[in-house]
Amino acid sequence: MERLQKVIAQSGYASRRKAEELILNNKVKVNGKVVNELGIKASDKDTIEIDGNILTKEEKEYYILNKPRGVVTTTSDEKNRKTVVDLIPTDKRIYPIGRLDYDTTGLLLLTNDGDFANILMHPSEKVQKVYVAKIKGIITAEAISKIKNGVMLDSVKVVPSRLKVKKVDKKTATTVVQISIQEGKNHEVKRIFDSVGFPVLKLKREKLAFFDLKDLASGEYRRLTPKEIAKVYSLKD
Ligand code: URA
User: Fold this and answer.
1) Where in the chain is the domain with CATH 3.30.70.580?
2) Residue closest by Cα to atom 3 of ligand 1
3) Alpha-helical segments (H) within the chain
4) What is the pLDDT along the chain (237 residues), one digit of tens a residue?
5) Cα 78–Cα 5–Cα 67 angle in degrees, nearest 5
6) Domain 62-123+211-236 belongs to what topology?
7) Residue list, ligand 1 pocket, CB within 6 Å
8) Which atom of ligand 1 is found nearest the CA of 187?
9) Nearest atom within ligand 1 for CA of residue 191
10) Closest CA to 60 of 94, 16, 97
11) What spacing in Å lies between the alpha carbon of 114 and ligand 1's midpoint?
């Protein structure tokens, strides 16, 4: 017997966090009865129903995608916009691990393995994410040192592990910077630069943990190798 949210995550239906949300929102039935507490345990032998669909186990799939601009990081969009899941032809219920904004490009992992997703999203794993941002204006030494000292976001001090100016273009009055962060807050990079008065014009995620975008053009994807999958699982140990 395992916790219900874990059984749901292992089936590939959703991440553990999303499964908890579904349970608390009365969307989950076990053997025909709505369950809305997180303490409940279940096993493969129980009939679990989510939103009227009976849960079945499916084979796990793992992808890395170079997300293009103008695609939503979700499994379905109420405005019918193209989603990251639409870019990968599969009959499995894969979903994105974390989020990139509609206009952000770059590295995104997708899977239907809830445990795998959980390792990369859990704050205790301190997974490094490296972004390259083109910002409006010529950044000042003062702004750089403010960011390096930490910016308050959602009452938490966010200190980048690295911040590097890559290019200053006086003609267009823009700066290209590389920033490495560990948290996964919404619009985190944009909010960091906004807080010192330099809005982000363009944003790309280049790295996440040991993954990079090598050989993947915009819109391209590939399956992760068994070695890469094992390496993510070993982060937990
Ligand atoms: N930070 C942002 O502001 N946007 C993203 O898409 C990712 C990180």
Assistant:
1) 62-123+211-236
2) 187
3) 4-11, 16-24, 114-121, 141-149, 188-194, 226-235
4) 889 998 888 887 888 888 999 999 999 999 999 999 998 999 878 999 999 889 887 889 999 999 999 999 999 888 999 999 999 999 998 999 999 999 999 999 999 988 899 899 887 788 999 999 999 999 999 999 999 999 999 999 999 999 999 999 999 999 999 999 998 889 999 999 999 999 999 999 999 999 999 989 999 999 999 999 999 999 887
5) 40
6) Alpha-Beta Plaits (3.30.70)
7) 100-101, 104, 187-190, 203
8) 3
9) 3
10) 94
11) 22
Going from the C-alpha of 45 to that of each of 18, 27, 42, 104, the distances in angstroms are 22, 19, 8, 42
Q: Which CATH code fits 128-208?
A: 3.30.70.1560
CATH of domain 2-54: 3.10.290.10
Give the residue numbers annotated as catalytic, written as ranges. 101
Residue range(s) occupied by CATH 3.10.290.10 in the chain: 2-54
Q: Cα 155 vs. chain centroid, distance in angstroms? A: 21
Hey, which of 66, 99, 135, 178 would you mutate to test ligand 1's pocket, going by the most ligand atoms within 8 Å of its Cβ? 99
Delimiting residues of CATH 3.30.70.1560 domain(s) in the chain: 128-208
Q: Which two three-digit tokens encode residue 120?
A: 């990369």
Sign of the torsion angle spanned by Cα atoms 77, 80, 83, 87: positive
pTM attached to this predicted model:
0.84
Cα–ligand 1 centroid distance for 32 (angstroms)? 41
